[in-house]
Amino acid sequence: TLNIKEKEELMDEIKLEIDHIISKMELKEANIDSYVGEQLIKSRNNLNSIRIIMIIMNIVLMILLLAYLPKTLTKPLKELEKSAFDISKGNLEKKIVSNSNDEIGRLSKSFEDMRNKVRLSKEHLEHQVNEKTKEINKKLQSEEKTSKAMIYLLDKSKRAKEELSHKNEELHAQSEELHAVNDHLLHAQHE
């Protein structure tokens, strides 16, 4: 069994050992706090680096979009504008092609439908005009033949009238001569 002094010494040793353990634990806790602090700082730095990289990537993406987007919008619009100008000038043969399904693509397809309908209407109208022109030309040819025949008949009639007028004058002259001869005979008979 232990005496009091031994007990006190043992207690002091235990206290020293506990103090030593506590100081080691405090040191480890300080090391852990320092390590965690360092890790937090590294994490913040990494997070800030990631944020900066994301901001740079967003800026690059926006620049690319701003460079690409106008081309994807303006090119189809300019092509559609040129096609509309061609149509307004009467060029209905050039097809309007669109490969997109967005609003501009649907507008282009509507323009193509309109161009095709106008082209078909124009072809139909031209066909009708050609048929009417042929019909009119046939009538004109027929009327021209009729006119030529009428002119021929009028000319023949005029010549016949002139001949009749000439014969009438001859008959009148002969009739006058006969009257004169008759008057002369009558006068001679009375004498």
Structure description:
It is a single chain. The chain has helices at 4-88, 103-190. It is mostly helical. α1 (4-88) packs parallel to α2. The longest helix has 88 residues, at 103-190.
Which features characterize this protein?
single chain; 191 residues; 91% helix; rod-shaped
Task: Indicate the percent of residues in helices.
Answer: over 70%
Count of alpha/pi helices: 2
Largest sheet: none
Strand content: under 5%
Which blocks of ≥5 consecutive residues have pLDDT under 50? none
Rounded mean pLDDT is: 86
Summarize the SSE layout with pairings.
Blueprint: H1 4-88, H2 103-190
Short summary of the structure?
91% of the residues lie in helices and 0% in strands. The chain has 191 residues and is mostly helical.
